[in-house]
Write a structure and sequence with these properties.
The protein is 66% helix and 0% strand. The protein contains four helices and no strands.
């Protein structure tokens, strides 16, 4: 397995990239990342490389969201969900 390191200029850039990756997994597997992660953690899914990558990406996504939520909490900015949606030019992501 080939390891790849990608560096982003901001945590928001990283979150947007991670959201796009998760969206790709969701489209291929036809389930939300939240639903997948719940099933994966309960041992209902195999430790297939695709699932391991998806789980790791989802963990990274959750960590990035938490970091950005903390930064935005005390500011007058909209919530992180709105920031990501505006930056991606889409709506309706969870």
């Amino acid at each position: 397995m080939r390891k790849e390191t990608i560096q982003y200029t901001t945590p928001l850039d990283a979150l947007i990239a991670m959201t796009k990756r998760l969206s790709s997994f969701e489209s291929r597997q036809m389930m939300s990342s939240e639903e997948f992660f719940d099933q994966y953690n309960r041992g209902q899914l195999a430790d297939d490389i695709v699932f391991v990558e998806w789980a790791n990406d989802y963990r990274h996504y959750l960590d990035l969201r938490q970091q950005l939520d903390k930064r935005l909490k005390d500011s007058d900015k909209p919530d992180i969900e709105q920031v990501v949606q505006e930056a991606m030019g889409v709506t309706g992501l969870a």
